[in-house]
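Regression test case RT-17, inverse folding.

Input:
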């Protein structure tokens, strides 16, 4: 019984040490910064400092960072140059979040340009169409800041999944089908957010 308790205690200590290491590892720092930026955007939306258009722009920026991180991790690790690049991207995003939280948002604030398809692939064309639908919903007031943030987070996850799938230079049929299912769900969510009772203030 004592031997079993000793083994159990050792396993618990090892798990705790591994979790602590993950939190302080370079790749853990990248993920912590990403989580922190998302919290700052969410807090800005909650207190009214970040408008729907600003939430859209900030979340698209996080999506680009997600996609870059997914591509960098495709070989199973992040090297120091990749970590430095992701940190520079997050430094820029951090400044942009601060700026959007401290400016005077107005209804006439210019939208970021629409994301052009990165290729002729059906997945990229659908992403571009979803982006246009979200932008139209923001412009018409059908999509508020919180909804824009959630919808763009969803698009960011799809971009990251696509970057992982394309890391070997080829998107398989199974990967393509999964990305299409993710976009089907996103399409339904965009429709719902544009037709619910919430409206941008």
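Golden output:
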């Amino acid at each position: 019984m004592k031997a079993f308790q000793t083994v159990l205690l050792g396993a618990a200590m090892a798990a705790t040490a591994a979790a602590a290491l993950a939190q302080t590892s370079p790749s853990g720092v990248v993920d912590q910064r990403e989580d922190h930026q998302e919290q700052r955007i969410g807090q800005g939306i909650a207190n009214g400092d970040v408008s729907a258009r600003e939430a859209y722009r900030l979340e698209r920026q996080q999506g680009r960072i997600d996609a870059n991180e997914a591509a960098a991790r495709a070989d199973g690790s992040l090297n120091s140059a990749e970590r430095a690049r992701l940190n520079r991207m997050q430094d820029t995003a951090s400044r942009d979040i601060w700026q959007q939280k401290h400016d005077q948002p107005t209804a006439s604030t210019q939208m970021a340009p629409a994301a052009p398809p990165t290729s002729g692939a059906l997945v990229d064309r659908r992403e571009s169409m979803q982006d246009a639908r979200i932008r139209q919903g923001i412009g018409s007031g059908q999509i508020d800041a919180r909804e824009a943030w959630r919808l763009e987070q969803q698009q960011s996850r799809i971009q990251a999944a696509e970057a992982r799938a394309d890391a070997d230079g080829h998107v398989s049929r199974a990967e393509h089908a999964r990305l299409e299912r993710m976009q089907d769900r996103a399409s339904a969510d965009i429709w719902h957010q544009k037709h619910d009772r919430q409206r941008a203030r």
